[in-house]
Amino acid sequence: MDERKLVLLHTNDIHSHFERMPRIAEALRRLRTKHAAGDPLVIDCGDHMDRMRPETEGSAGLANIAVLNATGYDLVVPGNNEGLTMTPDMLAAAYAERRGYSVVCGNLLESATGRPPAWMEPYRIVERGGIRVGVIGLTAYYPDFYSLLGWTVAEPIETAARLTERLRPDVDVLVVVSHLGINNDKAMAERIDGIDIIIGSHTHHLLEQPLHYAGTYIAAAGCFGKYVGELEFAYDADSGALRLIDGGCRDTDGFPPDPGIEELIRAEERASRSRLERAAAVLDKPIDIRWETESGLGNLLASGIRRWTNAEIGIVNAGQILQSLPAGEVTLYKLLEICPSPINPCLVRLSGEQIRRALEESLLDEFTRKPLKGFGFRGKVLGTLCLSGVRVEYAADGEPYGKIRSVTVNGEPLDPLRLYEVGTIDMFTFGIGYMSLGQGETVAYYLPEFIRDVLRAQLGDEEEIRRSGVPRWFSIG
Question: Which domains, ranges and CATH numbers included, belong to the chain?
Fold first, then answer.
């Protein structure tokens, strides 16, 4: 029997947790040494970058690339945080600095050419220990968003099937690196013959031991750099059989930080912070934020989103803004600190009844104090709704869903049957937070701008700042 060894090491969904990267680097170094005879293939499955962190924001992702370079990867798949929070030009500039690894994604194409950009390939065939390994990369399917940035994103499971058929005759082992989530990984295993291994991500799931599901091994290493995945296989070159020898996720707390990576990150943080210390605005007086009730910064952002989308109404949750602003200079660093979420403005059509329900919910503690994670949100709690173009009278001591006494939109009574054009945030359209705000028709998303870009524009407009102090909510006892 001609048995050969294949070792795969993997990370995913690190989301710019730079504080974990020195331990990740040391873990990968030691695991590469442990398996030196097997020449491990080292893979990152996407969402390494997250623009909530100043190192990433201030370097346009180059800080992440520097760490990837120094850590030593073989393959990287772009996740939605790379593909949707960075413009194609930003990604091209960042990946132009990569050293020693390939960027692989089979379902992301330039709309203008119908082909991958020069810095990316749909799949790659590598040889490890006499084994021909085919690797297909796939990223999350958000066609409405990608099209606004000049990308065409193909349906990933169909893409996987097509590329599997193409590669299978030419490889011994076929690996799919999936930034699709655990349910899609299982669907691929069920529907597509010929995939040996799926290394997953996107839904932040941790598989402490790989699954053997529908004949395919499925692995994933959680999120934020807490774990590194380690897979060791035996491949029988005579029969073509693949057998898992050992596999699991190694807690990176069990490894000391790599001092070289620590120093690299300190240098990148200093450089990025220096770039972000540029003034974005100068305030004559403080502007506050409160999560449970309306406040100046919340109103200012709601008005800005309304203007940005040319809508009748502006609605945003107060939890998007984490801190009040003092008088004086507001830097880009401070804007990132108070509004870190990579969330985009959008325009939706909602009925008056859908709007009224959300307004009622925003008077309830179970909504305003609700902890929230995911879907781009980088805050702590949902917070009340901040408004523009809307005046609400309510009885604070009224019954839940019966507190509101009147709602007017630009001076006219809210019509429960009428459809209104509402400027809001993409998060609501994913069905998170105030659910009724995601039940209307989405007219347009606005990319690549984030809501902190909207807030920055508002901070430069003295009249908008003045209007932000005008109440929208009135308690009538």
Answer: 3-272 (3.60.21.10), 278-475 (3.90.780.10)
